[in-house]
Fold each of these.
Amino acid sequence: MKRILVSAVVLSMLFAATAFAYEVVDVKNGGSIKGKIKASAKVDDLVLTIDKDVEFCGKSQPARMYILSPALEVKNVLVFIEEVQKGKAAPKTDITIDNNKCVFEPLVGVAYKGANFVIKNSDNILHNTNLGLLLKDKRSTVYNLALPTKDQVITKPIRRGGLHAIKCDAHAWMRAYLFVADHPYAAVTDASGSFEIKDLLPGKYKVTVWHEGFAEVTKEVEVTAGKASDLSVTLSKK
Amino acid sequence: MQVIKISKAVFAFTILLWGFAAITASAVFAEENRTLELGKIVYEKHCVICHGEKGDGKGAFFAVVQEASLASGIYPRDFTIGVFRFRSTSTGCLPANDDLRRIISSGILRSHMPSHPDLPEAEATAVIEYVKTFFAEWGQMEPCKPIIAKKPAWLGMPDSVKKGEKLWKDMKCWECHGDMGKGDGPKSNQLKDDWGKQIVPYDFTSGAAKRGDAPEDIYLAYTTGLDGSGMPSYEDSMSDEDRWHLVSYTLKLMGLVK
């Protein structure tokens, strides 16, 4: 009887799981979302004051937070679709997070569930890489790893999806941001503020435009087969 | 005709099977519901005053705790984000049932979490299941295997203490916890927990580790890290043996071995 009960539960769980899981399909003649992200006004980048490990890290560092072109195009903006039911397979590529000269490289990136975080310390000092998933205004620890020695590499599976904030408790100024999903539909803007999300099945998508220093914007975008839908957004400083 | 009969039989059988599955499943759910109902009663009796109705740590006592000094300034755990400091599981993992069971029965030193040694087993089990419902991902995350702390025979021996002393330096424990383990290292003054509140590294000479000060507790703190606090996990950065040597030296800092 117990065994039957267990299998009934397993069965119902399987049903629940398949109802929410991302479905991988071949996408032929899909549509895309592309555009340019700009700032509403000129913003100067911040300078970070450093007060720990100054011999190694220096006394100050550019924050690289507001990287704007003369036309106010913003670099390093994350553009992502939070929930996608169906689409092409996500790449299996791992993401390297390097603690390099007291900053995280990359500052902003996209990673995929099922692949790995490859966390590296290129510095001759202790760093710790504390990854947290941002849940509304709260933070849920994903991993907090000590990297006390130079050239240390720790590989960890990517298990949870969503917007991750990375910090180093030893160096309060260090931070990085990653969007993680089980699908490939996310991008980071380049120096001209441009991005492109390709191979989407036709339909309506809720797209989020996120940057650490600007107010978040979410828009609904309709995608049609074989065409590019425009999503150009002007962001205001937080 | 024959075919129709067979397909009718198959159909009837399928319906029967589904009916049976539904009944057994509902029996399981009924049992689960009974556990959660009991868990809710226990929670509302013992836990809600601090941890709050929504499990977000904002119960009636929250404001009082907020005013407490830094040394005892711990506030009730927010169950809605699935972050727990005292686990036997790796960093980023949910705790094992036994980890929660232990905190319920022993409480947490230097915090406002009291012990509940007399709580009946069924009530403890039920309240653990109820607490899990506050974090939506709990059922979906793959459970992690508890790490078993197996104390080596040489723990606390002079040779191991000496090795641990070098590791304390090389692994940069002193940067936060200080050369003598007093929690006064050069990085101790700027640390914040995941809720943005200032936090001080543990002073090993104080003799009141929240997690417990048995060698196994110290070993697990080094291995799993204390998620949410800033203390990282050394599971991947040190060998198991080295982590035990570090425990040996820690016991010396605590004045428990020479």
Amino acid sequence: MSPEQAIAAALLVPLLGAAGVLLCRRRPNVREAVTVLATLLTFGAVASLVPAVTAGGRPGLELFEVLPGLPLAFAVEPLGMLFALVASGLWILTSIYAIGYMRSHHEGHQTRFYACFAVAIAAALGIAFAANLFTLFLFYELLTLTTYPLVTHHGDERARRAGRLYLGLLMATSIVLLLTAIIWTYAVAGTLDFRPGGILAGRADAPLAIVLLLLFAFGTGKAALMPFHRWLPAAMVAPTPVSALLHAVAVVKAGVFTVTKIVLYVFGLDLLRTSGGGEILAWVAAATLLLAAAVATVQDNLKRRLAYSTISQLAYVVLGAALANGTAALGGSLHVAMHAMAKITLFFCAGAIAVTAHKTEVSQLDGIGRRMPITCGAFFLASLSIIGLPPAGGTWSKWFLVLGAADGERWAMVAVLLAGSLLAIGYLMPVVVRAFFYPPPAAGEGHGEAPLLCLLPLTLTALGCVGQFVFAEPLYRLLAPIAGM
Amino acid sequence: MSEHLPILQVVVPLLAGPLCLLLRHRLLVRGLATAVPLACLTIAGLLLHRVQQVGAISYHIGGWAPPLGIEYRIDLANAYVMVIVSAIAAVVMPFLPGHMGSAMVRRREHLFYAIFLLALAGLLGISATGDMFNAFVFLEIASLASYSLVALGRHRRALVAAYSYLIIGTIGGTFFLLGIGLMYQMTGTLNMVDLAHRLPEPMSPGTPGSRTVLVAFAFLAVGLSIKLAVFPLHQWLPRAYAHAPSAVSAFLAATSTKVSYYLLVRVVFSLFGAAYVFDALKLDRLLLPLSIVAMFAGSTAAIFQTDLKRLLAYSSVAQIGYMTLGVSLASVTGLTGGLVHLFNHALMKGGLFLAAACYGMRLRSSRIADLAGAGRLMPWTTAAFVTGGLALIGVPGTAGFVSKWYLVLAALEQGRWLVAVLVVASSLLAVAYVWRVVEVAYFADRDAGAHPIKEVPPLLLVPTWILIGATVYFGLRTELTAGVAEAAAGVLWESLR
Amino acid sequence: MSASILGLWNYWAVIVLMMTGLYIVTARDNLVKKVMGLNIFQVSVIMFYVSMAKVRGGTAPILVEGEETVLYSNPLPHVLMLTAIVVGVATTALALALVVRIQEAYGTVEEDELVRIDDDDG
């Protein structure tokens, strides 16, 4: 398969999968088989691109020009490669998990669920491979729209209200801020292509660069920078597989990925540094990082707690980009992969507990580790990764982030990064402690471990967190070019 | 034969209308009425192709040379408009027989088709002609036919709506006529090219005629603004579109205001010239705020409607604001945005009204609350509605995005970033009114006692999806829309001099 | 100044007619009277065209053998107004037809009553 074909396949297979799901709606087993097949083929297509990209190639695919000078085009560079790998790889596990979860929960509208899920993945891959801001924006909006039916899956008043907030906030930021920034950039730079070194460098003076940077950063609502973060906790009304893959991985990573990509390929690190925009963005990210982490510590609902933790961890990535040096950018990019693996594990665990023990609040989890040792063990490993402790992958990303901040002698930022990790201990470890060391409630409850289809994926992702620690080298080699190493 | 295309474009529907009265036989009339818009579309397509290759075509009616004889002058701008008008007419045709309101209309179908074809002839005539008085006559033919079409609505309120549309429309038409008279008084000509040459002399400030020309321009602009439903002269539009039969609303919303827009642009840019209208008169200072107010007021009103067709009609008021904004930005990019939106909005609003017609057929109501459960029971219609709604919002990958792109770009080119932000911000209101419908259609359950509904037949779904599919297609491939619109904007901008 | 104001008396007549018509259209509730107002309004424009074409001392534009230089009024506006009159008649006819239908459907042609009936319908 040539790289062009691989790109096309990665985008088309999920869409075909969605069509297949709709066609097989009357036969659930066939439908689920179609989904799993689509996930495997998609991941295969994405993975086949890795060798070429690691070797320094930038395979691309240009379809046609939509507006003068604005083609619908794709080009795979290291950052997008990583994001695509994470999204398509975790889609396999999430699908298996979703089958277990949706069936044990007796959820309705499963066909719509799987179909929208597949289209959302196609949109996420489109974002990952976009060769210019226009293409990226197209898929960005598509992702918002296809995840809306997933958020409002239950269709009750609560879901609808959450859906309104979700759509309203994401659309408002993307249309008013992001689109304005994109068209403005086009008016200034005459192009929207992603180019190493940036397209605004030399064309925009410092004040304009700062305005544009802030428009981009806040306009990318999916990056959940405060004060535009509230859609993420709201989206937690969705079924857990959606929260796991989309609101811990695909959607939110699409946000921070967009910000990082804009910083690297639209502004360029030099412009970011010289204009002073990076400094402002860094403080915005730092504030979000600490505030969200602090809010997370007082949430009782487990999924909401994880959601605020996601907001905080996303800010790490934005901060990595905003520090405007290669090492920190590398750390931020690595964190995309590390956090994805860890957070999806945490959500899988939360979902497994909800399905098996019907418990959703942290305060209900006393002693649950004795009945569900594997689930809670996985939760523990993933927590380590979020905090940034060995032997979990999060160690590496935080290491490079702190190193990058220290390189630039940004001691305040070093302190923020470390404080964020301390807070992470504060909101994750109590869950583990309660599960394993608190006595279970007196009345014995008749449940054991989670269903196998739920247990298997979460075990694999938990092991993945450790794997990312041990075998971080390929990731490093893939991303090294963007850090100029 | 091919040199007679400009006149055939108008004469074919104009003769076919009365022919319907003579034929009377239901199948013959239906056949004729289906064939004529297709023939018009073919002719318009051929004309557009010719114009793209050889430039403007001038046709002298009866062989009388202009400026004495009546000239039909086809250039990129009006060829483009004629393609849109005849395409929409061809697409809505399948809706007309089965869907018409009362039994009385169904019994006298041939009358209905006669009026419809006359409306089409009028709209094409306005676009084709190069003579101002001729334009007035066609404007009134189209308007009179439209009043009658609106009056055919199911509810008796349609009659009142048609009546008030007639009153305000006639006032607009008469203003237009007065403007022509004043221009004639100063120049002694009615031919557009000739006017463009002769107007500058009395137009220049200080000459005795300058005030007359100013008054002439004012009457022309106000008259056309009424027909175009520029805010705040828009009150007739929501009533007329809400009570007309849905298919008629689809046709009128997609063509009638568009043709008025074309004529306004023609008068502003080709006859008087941007230098006079914007540099001397500063029309943009009036039109720009009005356009923005229209965008917000129209969309806000749409949010609070309980009737689907009314919602779409108020959204039209807002979308017309985008088009006039394109004019008031006074640049080729802005005008391109306006013209592109003319085309794109015709597609989306046509498609949306057709979807409303599908709903109306099954639900026998156009209240939004009655759409409950439609998402499941009429999946294709609802999907069409949602896609059309996304285009109204301006989601990338739909035609609405292309329009917005050019308008915002035009605003930013001139450093009017506030206008740019307002344009994008107003599309958020579109999110609100589109989503109100989406929530009801998908999340609300149909009452147990309500009559059962099912999807409409393919005969109606196909035309709806042709328009909706086109909004997606033209959101991704824009050579035919933005490309032509840009060239047409250039043609208009250079005036006829 | 006064000469130019009085000298243009035909315009004043047109303006008075026009405003009378517009006033009737907006101020009357009776739909038939509104149509009358509309007619007056349209007629004012017709008068404008016709008076504009008049040349002082001019006659009908007919060629008479032997007389080379006939002073005649401009015929074009007259011709145009023939068309405009046709348009006006058509408009009036349609408007009256609508009024008849409204009378059948509502039992009244008074605008305020129509509004009340529609409001009562909800």
Amino acid sequence: MEAFSIEAIKVYFDLYFTFLKIGFFSFGGGLAMVPLFVVEFQKNGWMEPEQFYNVLSLAQMTPGAIAVNSATFVGNEAGMAVGGRLGALIGGLFATAGLATPSVICIVALSELLRKMKQNQWKQAFFFGIKPVTIALIFFAGWKIAESTFFEESYTEVHYGSIILFLIVAALLKVFDKKIHPIALIACSAIIGIVIF
Amino acid sequence: MFTFGGGYAMVPLLEKELIDKKKWLTNDELLEIMSIAQMTPGTIAINAATFVGYREKGFLGGIMTTIGVMAPSYLVITLIYHLFNTSFEHPIAQKAFLGARACIVALIGHSVWKMFQGSVKDKFSFGIFLGACILLFVFHIHPILLIVLGAVTGILLLVTMPSKIKKLLK
């Protein structure tokens, strides 16, 4: 079977180790990985940059983390080229696993370290400084999503429907807070989007 | 499954599942986990999931939560790849995503507000938050640099005003 030929297996491991490398060298989450993705994919002949930017917009729209989505897609594409549909499934799996490996290694090591220095005041000061920054970063991420939702690319057009929907959801959260599940809200909003927008 | 727009969009869901339902974490602990997740190599969502799983149930727990957070991405993207190939610009899908994103903005805003109330209680934290916002929104500083600056500020505060800061640490 072509999906298990030597050539195909070589591509699967190339995918695994490429994403392993990208995972280890990217700090700051999925979008920070984009430049590395572009270079590696072109080098390996898996995908041209323009094609990858399309994948990226797909990855941003679909559920799940951007980097995982991109890895799965590129793994599918590269696997498809050497091993057909089965090859695509395996390629996606290897790429995704490669991306997750650095997280598991680094996080396990780091949690052991943090456990040992639980009462250390330098560690506490470190987090005292970082926590407000994290809140600011999440705030900024929210603003970025808001920008791409409420406005057209060049700010020429305002999408009032989505702003009104945003205000309604915000009001519901303010009133009911813990009684409604975020997933239910997202699902309802998606349906409202299909019906009204 | 239901996180659109990258790792930070996962915060409202983590809040609901881990704080409100399972009671594994407090708001402040989740903030600590997000802080760790964003400065460790790898994607934020996977890092956060691995951390929570490892802390609660050991190595196997870490592996399980990692698989759990990645499985939906793998399934959805693979499905899209095989069904639609690259074209996913169907108008109905676009409308659904637009609606979902409007909702996510509200959810993230709500989470930010709760984290802010829970963890920014003194003038030093507020100052760091305000400085970080200005550097991000006005100067578009790189997030990693911002995180390093935050850590340095925290440690410098402890060095320069030990008595004041020690009272605020926990």
